[in-house]
Amino acid sequence: MANGNGSFKSKPTSDTKGKTITCKAAVAYGPGEPLVVEEIIVHPPKKMEVRIKIIYTSICHTDISAWRGENEAQRAYPRILGHEACGIVESVGEGVREVKEGDIVVPIFNGECGECRSCKCEKSNMCERNGVNPMKKVMEGDGTTRFSTLQGKPIFHFLNTSTFSEYTVVDSPCLVNFLHPQLSLSLKHLTLLSCGVSTGVGAAWNTANVHSGSSVAVFGLGAVGLAVAEGARARGASKIIGVDINPDKFIKAQAMGVTDFINPKDEEKPVYEIIKNMTDGGVDYSFECTGNVDVLRDAFLSAHLGWGLTVVLGIHASPRLLPIHPMELFDGRNIVGSVFGGFKGKSQLPHFAKQCGHGVVKLDNFITHELPLEEINKAFDLLIAGKSLRCLLHF
């Protein structure tokens, strides 16, 4: 179990190695239906797979999108959602060398096999074998699941991780080893690095390469958007404009570096015009974190002519295409997408954790609630209502 500071005091025993485990999980049985916390069976890991005991997991808006079934192609039930967590290795399958029983690990939805052409390319953090794939619902090795109901019905996987379960099985390229947690980070903090914080800070650092003295606009002040702001603050941005329709978020945003706040509901002019007036023609960098194409257009037009860069982080489940005319790209603005903040998970996340441990990025403000897994539906409601950033769930 984990103590109040999120550090680990004991580890799973080897009694379960090679055997099935019965444990609690929150199972999705249909789009928008309340998750059911029940006993399930978790099967042993197969070749190049790892079974881990989840210590903490949290909820991201991507989990909510999948839970709602916003993209019909993603619908697969029953399914165990969740992709942001920290845990400890219970057992490993054949061929696994990078982790062993008892290691502290963070599961990552965008894996790194280290062998494919994309992994070997310094310009990309994609992986051809274990990259992010919201349509994937089974294990990479044999195309089957490692979860089942007590009655033997298969339960599908989600985003390479499925962390809303006391135990889960992941492909080894989708785990980052934190065997030596002398990084001054608790397990609670490590949980944040498996998605939201890494995605936002990495977008500011790796994708945009925000520079000191620059101006930034962040559209959507959820956990990812605030992580962008925190990353921009750490890089020395002089003006960080937060845009959100929830005025309560500005107080939290100020603590993470946001210098100005715009609520589109309070304005008569388009947001991009307001930002242009505030920044002498537009910001150096804008970040779209909402998954709304109309907001994306505002973000793009708020970037300065000639050099402004717009980074897309929001998950766009709608079939609507980019609201940008090709000729608008001839004004010198650029637009690019960012997955997992451009981080190569296995090879770069440990260094990022060390930076966080040294206080370069402040993590405490992202954890707003803690609840037991049995109250996961309450945690969903808090996030949907905009009342939480990250609610840590424990078993």
TrEMBL record:
Keywords: Metal-binding, NAD, Oxidoreductase, Zinc. Residues 223-342 form the Alcohol dehydrogenase-like C-terminal domain. One of its GO terms (molecular function) is zinc ion binding. Its cofactor is Zn(2+). It comes from the Eukaryota. GO terms for biological process: formaldehyde catabolic process. Its EC number is 1.1.1.1. InterPro entries: ADH-like_C (IPR013149), ADH-like_N (IPR013154), ADH_Zn_CS (IPR002328), GroES-like_sf (IPR011032), NAD(P)-bd_dom_sf (IPR036291). It catalyses: a secondary alcohol + NAD(+) = a ketone + NADH + H(+); a primary alcohol + NAD(+) = an aldehyde + NADH + H(+). Transmembrane segments: none annotated. Residues 47-172 form the Alcohol dehydrogenase-like N-terminal domain. GO terms for cellular component: cytosol. Gene3D superfamilies: Medium-chain alcohol dehydrogenases, catalytic domain, NAD(P)-binding Rossmann-like Domain. It is an enzyme of class 1 (oxidoreductase). Belongs to the zinc-containing alcohol dehydrogenase family. Class-III subfamily. Homodimer. This is alcohol dehydrogenase. It comes from Psophocarpus tetragonolobus (Winged bean).
